[in-house]
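Input record (one chain):
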Amino acid sequence: MPRFFITPEQIRENRITLSGPDALHAARVLRMRTGDPVVFSDGRAYEYHARITDIKDDRMAAEILSRVENRTEPEIRIVLCQALPKGDKMDFIIQKAVELGVHAVLPVITCRTIPDIKDKGLKKAERWARISAEAAKQCGRGILPIVEVPVAFCGLLYRFGEAFSRGARGIMPWEMETGVKLSDTLKKLDAEKVRSLWVFIGPEGGIAPGEAEDAKAAGFLPVTMGRRILRTETAAIAALSSILCLYGEF
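The corresponding structure, as predicted from the sequence alone:
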């Protein structure tokens, strides 16, 4: 069933209005008509099952039939701190991370980051937000995962420091770590009832030793993901899948 994200302001008593690109997509691409069922999500883990009462090119009105709690969100909140990769790999990473259940994505510029985004950060973030929204609709998410504007490595450490003080913990898959397995660290974090986890994934070329030391000093726990060196996009998806599996999602 088609799904759209809305804000509380779009809800009036038992009616919901949708306008702009989403309404246009519903009318022209999905060819939805009066009487068709539709689902709206408020981005706060509640969804509204409704029936279309009026639809034109750029505007839709629907009658609310029921409100239910969306139960698709993982118990653990994961923030993916992804060093910017080359090409369009970030598009793929964001799409799959949202499908898997991340709460937010924080793109990071490290000393080994190859793409030179300079003044393109805001435009990139807007594109990534659209990818996140489409993925969230497709997989039935209860929230709209946030994709931040890219930050420098020092910005990552500052943001994580604030989260750490509120109980969040962090892991850092790193090819130079050979003694501590990801699975063992996750079991310890689960036993400690950690429910907010930051995952720092390095760029092509890996995390520089100096940055790895700074990340460890900030509280990120270095882990190994096996004897094989993974591409950055593979490492991100593998780490997220492992976390969600251990926390009982799969």
